[in-house]
Predict the structure.
Amino acid sequence: MGTLTQENDSKKNLKCKILVVDDEPGCRRFLAWELKAQGYEVVTAENADRGLACLTEYDFPLVITDVRMRGSMDGIDFIASVRRRRPRQKSIFITGYAIEEKLQDALRHEGTRCLRKPFELDELLGAIRTLMEKL
């Protein structure tokens, strides 16, 4: 019976596309590799502008973004921009910094979680499952 549950979970994961937006190549590659190993379809973007372009091309039920990124906007502004067009967009922020007021405001959205670096893969997978169950 456990195998059937794992197969169902795996099939559910394959249907979920995740966009990972992070200006650190190593972090992007790590997240993409780990999530693909779990059966998720993953697309990566190196900054918020490229992330927005990806979102015009594809529908991603979940976006994972670093809070602090180089470029025209940080992760918080990026998700705020996304939600102007997609108010129900699910997102996970990742940060290595203290949670500041701007991030606290962003976390008030029901479909949002935040993970502090360094985080365990199980923490990330748990946050993804929690958000995706609310689809």
